[in-house]
Amino acid sequence: MIGSAVPRKEDAALLTGRGTFVDDIQRPGLLHMVYVQSTEAHALITGIDTSAATALPGVVGVWTAEDFAELPARPSVPGLERHYLAGEKVHYVGEPVAVVVAADRYTAADAARAVEVTYEPLPVMATLEAALAPDAVPIFAPLPGNLALEQPVTPDDVAAELDAAPRRLRARLVNQRVAGAPMEPYGVLADWVGNGVTVWATVQAPHRVRAEIAQVFGLARHLIRVVAPDVGGAFGVKSSFMPELFLAPELSRRLGRPVKFVETRREHMTHTYHGRDQVQEVEVGFDENGAILALDVTITVNIGGVPDPVGIGLPTLTSYMLGGCYRIPKIAARYRSVLTNTTPTASYRGAGRPEASFLIERVVDLVALELGKDPAEVRKVNLIGPEQMPYQTPFEGIVYDEADYPAALELLLGELDYDALRAEQERRRADPGARLLGVGLSTFVEMAGFGPTPLFEQFGYLGGWESANLRLQPDGSVIVLVGTAPHGQGHQTAMAQIVADELGVPFEAVSVFYGDTAVVQEGIGTMGSRGMPVAGNAVRQAAVEVADQARRIAAHLLEADPDDLVRVGDGFQVKGVPDAAVPLAAVVERSFKPHLLPEGTRLGLESTAYYEPKNLSYPSGAHGCVVEIERDTGRVHVVRYVCVDDCGTVINPMNARGQVHGGVAQGIAQALFEKVSFDAEGRPLAASLEEYMLPGMLDLPRYETHHIETRSSFNPLGVKGIGEAGATAAPQAVVNAVVDALAHLGVRDVEMPCTPERVWKAMHHAS
Amino acid sequence: MRVEITVNGRPHEREVEPRLLLVHFLRDLLSLTGTHVGCDTTSCGACTVLLDGVAVKSCTVLAAQADGCEVTTVEGLGGPDGLSPVQEGFRQCHGLQCGYCTPGMVMAATALLAERPDPSEQEIRDGLKGNMCRCTGYQMIVESVQWAAANGGAR
Q1: Is A565 in contact with A572 (CB distance < 8 Å)?
Q2: So what's the ipTM on this one?
Q3: Is A196 within 8 Å of A188 (Cβ atoms)?
Q4: Whose CA is closest to B55, among B64, B45, B41?
Q5: Average pLDDT along chain A, 767 residues, taken 10 residues at a time
Q6: Is the Cβ–Cβ distance between A706 and A645 less than 8 Å?
Q7: Please, what is the Cα angle at A726 between A721 and A729, to 5 degrees?
Q8: How far apart are the CA of A569 and the nearest CA of chain B, in angstroms?
Q9: Cβ separation of A183 and B133 shorter than 8 Å?
Q10: If you measure CA to CA, which chain B residue comes closest to A19?
Q11: Which residue in A has a C-alpha nearest to residue B124's C-alpha?
Q12: A241, A444, A474, A543: most buried, per Cβ within 10 A?
């Protein structure tokens, strides 16, 4: 079944309206919780008048920060611990200031509007420049300024290497702030009964949420059940701490009734973490052939007003991946994490790695432009060869697994018909009536399959492993429990394909469950493209162990040595003796008959496996984008988008194609459309889907997808992960194409998003 | 105020607040939770239902406006013998990932095929431009609708 494009097991429920998303769940006596959000970006709270709100019929109560003072703050960098509601001051527009509970959501919304908060304004620092200015006011008083963290990632600089390089250039690249914007906003339903609580929540890591709730309330973990039901997209933004994960349980405890919180889209756009928002200062040394000799990078990341601990450290991952798929002998990197009066930033699809891929791919194109060489040729000069794999990068512990980067580029150039495109580009440039044509390349590698544990525990997780329990039912069918908590990736289907192959059972005979801490043994979660590389291998390992148990019982049944059995059709056979065979179903039934089993045999066929990856995995590939640009408006049209991906073994080609499409769509959207921005007073300018340019069907192209399958030697399945590859590869493929289309006009860079206005200005003001 | 709305062939009479949105009438009063809410501004289309056969965004229709009308939600498609052609097309062509936009997308596609049984790719993209999906990048949704057009259409 591995490699087969079977339709998904998930779809029947989701297509008929019988999925279960958090807001679909009703409980008797349900109450609704709504935030009162800050309207100011930086201000002291001088008063909160709740009298009008509490007087409304149906309102149960209004609570402010002091009502939750006994709950321990969320841990972070010392001085930056997060409380549940804003206390003495607010740090960004949208920060929760108070919480209202009412009998229905309309009344709760009315009451939230009736709460009167008075503010004494403080200077607003909505940009990196303002926050780092000498006269800037520290947003968090315990810190001397707004620089939350200054981190050298490498011990040395590359000043000597840059001095020795025949050529060098500098660039300042901006990876703008975007919103993950899953179609389902964040939601939590908490029902505290007796001395424990059940929480349904739109989260990517239910066991971790259980651990955090346990820690905050001082409860043993068995008293808490966290369920991530159907989750309507997440893209990393549902992996961070949200105050409602704790406020809803606490209010349910106090009120003795279930409490539900579901964001509106406006709340989501201002309250839930954004992604990216890096400024990158780069200097690169290279030779006349285009070989890159040294790279020096300083990253400044905007972590917003009440920073997320993961968001503070994400540029570490950017730094590790700065070399891309190239042999760069020496890299120096450092980063600064800066507080501003904006919504906090944290993980978003790729979480730090797309920023690195964007940087190095733009740099390679700039080198090509500087030398007057073709960007494809400069890539070929620098690509790591397949014979160099596994490849030790300049960063300790960052070792790329097997891949053939040059082959991916060659396949891409062939599929693009690259030389013909270059000829067409020249023809268009000479014809003032024709749209300009640009071709952008992106040879990328990203980091996936998070763990292993020493790395992943730094992000607050119990481990970097993943778990699976597999047990055969007495009729020969299979139940699998897996520790990941997917939100669209198709784990019910892909895991069943793995089990079908390892255990020799039909795909239809396997059911996969996840996302419920009362059902699933310990688990870590779905993020960092760890579904197949980590959880998939845990499922495989459990299946291998159960198959081995079955073999021993079959051998006993057939009165043979286990080593003399071979797998046939639906069971086992003694090698060379077709009559001496037993179907798996008979073996399972026998496994439940203690009196017919050898003394000391454990009943049933079942295993719980924990798979700890020895290393990360490194999905890679080559993407190419062809754009046309309208000369009179600057509007960019993506006319072709070609992907070559190497995610190792492909479990389900249809699912893999879907993951590539979705990631590429988000990457194109970042390149051309999306930006979360604030005015000078820190007021959000993209707080709804009317203002935030989420692309629709007319905005995105057809995608041409191709695969190279190089098995990874780092895990038994040979998989690498595919969820974040598209989002990692696409932004620079598009931007490189836009700049390429305009290069003859002297354009060297266009900042994302490449809106018609920006492109038009670049065309007319290029030096 | 009192409204009578026929949903998926069954009449429902309820006392409602004049400001009650049709989507909340369906979800909260009738427990038809297949219709989803993804935004507050009529932008995303997750709440698309058919109102007297026309695709509308039920987050921008008052229950009062639907008084006396017939509404079809995703729960009203298909039947005991299985999925509707549009639903089956989405399954065959992997036109959904997380499934949150899917009911609205399926309803909009059903309305499109009722009007244009054999749409071109451009007509599909035009017809569904008001429905947003964050997972698929849309191409496999286009392929799903093409599959449905070739296998039974808007039934």
Answers
A1: yes
A2: 0.98
A3: no
A4: B45
A5: 97 97 97 98 98 98 97 88 93 98 97 98 97 96 92 95 98 98 97 97 98 97 98 96 96 98 97 97 98 98 94 96 98 98 97 98 98 98 98 96 98 98 98 97 97 92 97 96 97 98 96 98 96 98 97 96 92 94 95 93 96 97 98 98 98 98 98 97 96 97 97 97 97 98 97 98 84
A6: yes
A7: 110
A8: 28
A9: yes
A10: B34
A11: A697
A12: A444
Half-sphere exposure of B71 toward its Cβ, with a 13 Å CA cutoff? 32
A311 in contact with B, Cβ within 8 Å: no
- Angle, CA of A616, A621 and A622, to the nearest 5°: 150
CA distance A499 to chain B (A): 21
Phi, psi of A402, deg, nearest 5: -60, 135
Q: Is A301 left (phi over 0), alpha (psi -120 to 50) or beta?
A: beta
Neighbours of B6 (CB within 10 A): 15
Residue tagged 């620098």 (tokens): A382
Q: pLDDT tens digits, residue range A381-434?
A: 999 999 999 999 999 999 999 999 999 999 999 999 999 999 999 999 999 999
Q: What is the pLDDT of residues A98-155, one digit of tens each?
A: 999 999 999 999 999 999 999 999 999 999 999 999 999 999 988 999 999 999 999 9
The DSSP bridge partners found for residue A469 are A481, A608
Max CA distance (Å), chain B: 45
A59 within 8 A of A102, measured Cβ to Cβ = yes
For A409, residues 6+ apart whose C-beta sits below 8 A from its C-beta are A376, A379, A380, A383, A441, A443, A622, A644
> Looking at the DSSP assignment, which residues form a beta bridge with residue A445?
A620
CA distance A605 to A157: 57
Three-state DSSP class for residue A162: helix
Contact A110, A56 (CB under 8 A): yes
Q: Which of A265, A395, A427, A403 is nearest to A711 (CA)?
A: A403
**Can you spell out the DSSP letters for B88-149?**
HHHHHTT--SS-SSHHHHHHHHHHHHHH-SS--HHHHHHHTTT---SSS-SHHHHHHHHHHH
**Residues 204 through 233 of chain A touching chain B, CB cutoff 8 Å:** 230-233
Mean pLDDT (chain B, rounded): 97
Span A564-583, pLDDT tens digits: 999 998 899 999 999 999 99
| Six-digit token string for A253 | 């405890």
The whole-model pTM stands at: 0.97
Q: How far is A263 from chain B (nearest CA, A)?
A: 9
**What is the amino acid identity at position A511?**
S
Q: Which residue has the tokens 């790729």?
A: A350
Pairing status of strand B54-57 against strand B48-51: antiparallel
Whether the Cβ atoms of residue A90 and residue A97 lie closer than 8 Å to each other: yes
